[in-house]
Amino acid sequence: MVCESRKTQLDTYLDGELPSEEMHVFDAHVRICPSCAADALARVQMKRTVHVAGKRFTPSAEFRRRVQQSVAAKPRRGLARFGWMTAPAVIAVLVVAGLTASYVGRQRVHQEQIYSELADLHVATLASSSPVDVVSSDRHTVKPWFQGKVPFTFDLPELQNSEFSLLGGRITYLGQTSGAHLIYAVRKHRISVFIFQEGSVRGRWDEESPVTKELSFNMETWSQGSLRYCILGDAAAADINNLAELLKRAAGS
Amino acid sequence: MEPQSGSFEELAMPLFDQLYNFAHWLTRNRDEAEDLVQETYAKALKGFSSFQLGTNFRAWMYRILRNTFLTSRTGLKATMTVPLDSEEDEPELALERETPETILIERSNWQLVHSAIDQLPVHFREVLLLCEVEEMSYQEIAETLSIPIGTVMSRLSRARKTLGGRLRQDLHKEQNHGLRVSEDTARHIPRR
Question: Which fold has domain A109-252?
Fold first, then answer.
């Protein structure tokens, strides 16, 4: 019986993912237990086989060169053509213009990148065979499920008299930061609600217009109570806005 | 400090071979794998300024590649055909002592192993390759696939079981085929 319970952890042990104390206990056990040792050997052989067999495909040199060129740092242009007399003025203008353009450009890139990643997460989640890890329409089930999984907590709205329904939630990651991803339904549309700690995801959020279009998805984002909320889906802008209002009221109550 | 494009090249190009390998396993096609890798590098370069230095660059690159794949036509098709089995944690079965896998490995029949990995549903294939080929930790895999660690473990366990089952099946088929061939050959040997 003892061995059977250990065997359920054998893969975790061989993957080196057990806590160090348990690793030592396991090491000692495998040395004296022929049954576990035999199983461990078979699994190690299997791991090695997949490791070698999995390294199967190699890119062509031409393809590597193409990608390398596309990501290579662009060479800087010299200032010689402006003449040495005008160089300080030109440098000053270029510095100011460069700083401004780089700041604006950087903000735009941040924003586009974040929106694009959120749209990817939304589509990938809906395409998944198991879009949510906690399946429940009850906010009192979904919210506690996130305890200990994300470094914050949040409130979800009561939906009894609304046309929205909660389908469930899952952990998500954006920019190496964990957050909550909730899926709501309105009629046949699915809407993603992402919640992250404000400041943990770098980038500028466009809050000027209530609902913006990103890759044809409607999207709304706002900050409340040190949390960053993003709603994204193919539902009408009014629906996105209504759900945002419900969430804002819940967070503010 | 903002990361520079030069450092993107330095960080990203060493991952090129392994990203391509992973992309080819996902798409099962050279042209599509090249498109996927190219798009991944373009997206990553564009978003590199928002990448936080000191965090896991490799997981970030794999996540971009994987999300790009999932939103492609091939990716959507692949995920739609995944069996809707429960992903709840389930007790892991111990492998049989006398494993056909051991015999298989001794024979070094790589074609069967390649085929068995290739036949795995995409969710199993990706988690298995990230763990065994890329040797990512459970935490890295969780970040790459945007799933909790518990799901990584249960998915990995099921992927291994499915792979073992397929290999066992294929090996038996091979053995039976071999026996049949020997019998046929014996029948054609002229008797004296």
Answer: Phosphorylase Kinase; domain 1 (3.30.200)
